[in-house]
Amino acid sequence: MRISAQAVFAWADFRITLAERPRAKGRGQTPQAGTDSGSPGFAGRELLREAVARLRDGRWVAVVVALAFLAGVIAIAGRIASGQAADNLRETALAALPLAAGTLTGEIEKQRLVPLVLARDDAVRGALRRAGKMKEKALNDKLKSIAGDASASAIYIIDTAGIAISASNADEPASFVGIDYNFRHYFQEAMSKGAASQYGLGTISGRPGLYLASRVDDGGKPLGVAVLKVELDGVEANWRSSGFLVFITDERGVVLATSQPDWRFRALAPLSAEDTPPA
């Protein structure tokens, strides 16, 4: 990827990059799609279907702290042409980067407490104790109301077997109720560690989003997991309006969210077989 100016905000193994947007189609390079199945430069269909990169517990908290105190690492990369224009571009990118990062973390901060609160909710615990023995209309309605207030894509409750017993979209054709999420990494990690975050594709919707999960306990006994999914369409739209190319990559260099839609889920460099993400 050839970029005349680039600013990077890094935290843990993840980074937000803000750069000059390509001026015309064909100028510079987009991340490689990699058609050779033996050389997966692009995470491709398997990456799309398998849910991209997990964000280990606490990393989003680290982002918020880093941004709040303007800590972290900011670097300038790529070739910068000489002259005042290049200097101005660099200064603009550096000034805009915290704003771009703040848009993301602001959205996450708004959402991350919801599953924590639901994990302590008596109605949620009661539904999990019944474990699907009856329809949970009252809880479904409650989750739908909360999802609307929080601008969440979906909120759902999963029992210890991995089955969703209640969801904010229970009255929709693509309801999550009855779906088996036992294979999803965010469910497995939340059950074992108490909380989890993962960026990936929806099993039913096929749409990308950030999953925030908290385990529901009752007297020290796990009952299930409360999950909130938030899609970052609004954040990406905000980035696009900035006029810069903004994207988030994980430690493997896979683009998770971006102002350039056709870059999403592409790798900035060829991926090895070991880099296949968890579901």
Which secondary structure elements does this structure contain, and how are they paired or packed?
Elements: E1 6-11, E2 14-20, H1 44-50, E3 54-55, H2 59-68, E4 73-77, H3 84-118, H4 122-130, H5 137-150, E5 154-159, E6 164-167, H6 185-193, E7 195-201, E8 208-218, E9 221-230, H7 233-241, E10 244-249, E11 255-258
Antiparallel strand pairs: 1-2, 1-4, 2-10, 3-7, 5-6, 5-9, 7-8, 8-9, 10-11
Outline the structure in words.
With 279 residues, the protein is α+β, with helices and mostly antiparallel strands. The chain folds into two domains: 6-111 and 233-275, no CATH class; 112-230, 2-Layer Sandwich (Beta-Lactamase). Helix content is 33%, strand content 24%. The chain is built from seven helices and eleven strands. The protein has helices spanning 44-50, 59-68, 84-118, 122-130, 137-150, 185-193, 233-241; strands at 6-11, 14-20, 54-55, 73-77, 154-159, 164-167, 195-201, 208-218, 221-230, 244-249, 255-258. It has a six-stranded antiparallel β-sheet, with helices on both faces. The protein has a five-stranded antiparallel β-sheet with strand order 4-1-2-10-11. Helix 2 crosses helix 3 (84-118).
Number of strands: 11
Content of β-strand: 15-25%
> What strand order characterises the main sheet?
3-7-8-9-5-6
Please tell me the total number of domains: 2
> How many alpha or pi helices?
7
Instruction: Assign the structural class, choosing from mainly alpha, mainly beta, alpha/beta, alpha+beta, or little secondary structure.
Output: alpha+beta
Order of helices and strands: EEHEHEHHHEEHEEEHEE
Fraction of helical residues: 25-40%
The overall average pLDDT, rounded, is 71
Cα-atom Rg, whole angstroms? 20 Å
Shape field: globular
Main beta sheet: strand number and arrangement?
A: 6 strands, antiparallel
**Oligomer category:** single chain
Distance between the termini: 28 Å
Low-confidence stretches: 1-14, 23-28, 33-82
